[in-house]
Amino acid sequence: MIDVSIIVVSHNNERDLSFSVGSALQQRGITSETIVVDNASTDATREVVARMPGARLLALSENVGFAGAMNIGVDATSGRYVISLNPDCRLEPDFAAMLAERLETRPEVGSASGRILRAAGPELAPTASLDSTGIRFTAAGRHFDRGAGLPADGRFLQEEEVAGTSGAAGFYRRKALESVKISTGYFDSDFFLYREDAELAWRLRNLGWKCLYVPQAVAYHRRHNLPERRALMSPLVNLHSVKNRFLLRINNQSPRHFLATLVPTLARDAVVVGACLTVERSSLPAFGWLWRNRKRLWAKRREIQQKMCARKKAQAASDL
Q1: Do 139 and 240 contact (CB within 8 A), yes or no?
Q2: How far apart are CA 3 and CA 73, in angstroms?
């Protein structure tokens, strides 16, 4: 039986794969499988993977985005646990074993985050800065990687529960993924890219699953997309960032949460809309997409809410 399935979604990442996929193949203390789901790359990605014994290539004929490719990867693997590994992220050899060991003793935990440090250069060399110690949410509906950009020394050294795990090196219990799967997949394929890990974290939490931060499990991530670099990010990423900000709430926000966070949420929305009307007009089509798909998105929200109601009924019955 496979303990951990490691899924790398690639799109023109030939230079990084020897380090990310290489680190996946070097995991020890578990039985694992490594699959690269390639989103129609035009570089030498497929040739690079073909030269890596132990790595399986799933070549797609079109770019279905990170979320869609992850869904295909999950369905093509069999591990009791799943790692989503970005091509610009590499794992220490005992990363998967440490997280699997912790979740074996915590059946209520559906996902886990390791201690991810920033990486630099083509070899994904470790730096002294943190990249993520799990996801946190704010009252305004924003989400951030805890500790991102801070000096790593002396910070976030205790195991604790967090809101979610970064998709750069996200660790998931397959049973948890299956329990929250919706019509658009485990990861919501409507997100295409960006924020899909936060949406999955919110959905898992709403369905009663916890997320555990385990600092002994270490990875290194050369992050490109950062809030402070928004002006340098591609128009496609920024468009999906705007669209997905609203999708997050459409999927998962309860009426009570909406009312409780109404003022900071609407204030932030005003900033986003204002920016799209002035300095980032390339993101305006996000609102058109949301409007055109409104009926389908509302039906998907009902699907998620029905899962939550079913969970509450099951929990109530077990308490009797």
Answers
A1: no
A2: 15
The residue type of 152 is A
C-alpha to C-alpha distances, 264 to 208, 241, 271, 284, nearest whole angstrom: 26, 18, 11, 22
Q: What is the pLDDT of residues 244-296, one digit of tens each?
A: 999 999 999 989 888 988 888 888 889 999 999 999 999 999 999 999 999 99
Which token pair is 46? 């497929």
CA distances from 293 to 22, 227, 238, 287 (A): 40, 27, 19, 10
Strands 160-162 and 55-60: unpaired
pLDDT in tens, 174-218: 999 999 999 999 999 999 988 999 999 999 999 999 999 999 999
Domains of the chain are 4-226 (3.90.550.10), 228-319 (no CATH)
Evaluate if pTM is beyond 0.85.
yes
End-to-end CA distance of the chain: 36
Q: How large a percentage of the chain has pLDDT more than 90?
A: 82
Greatest C-alpha distance within the chain: 59
Contact between 106 and 213 under an 8 Å Cβ cutoff? The reply is no
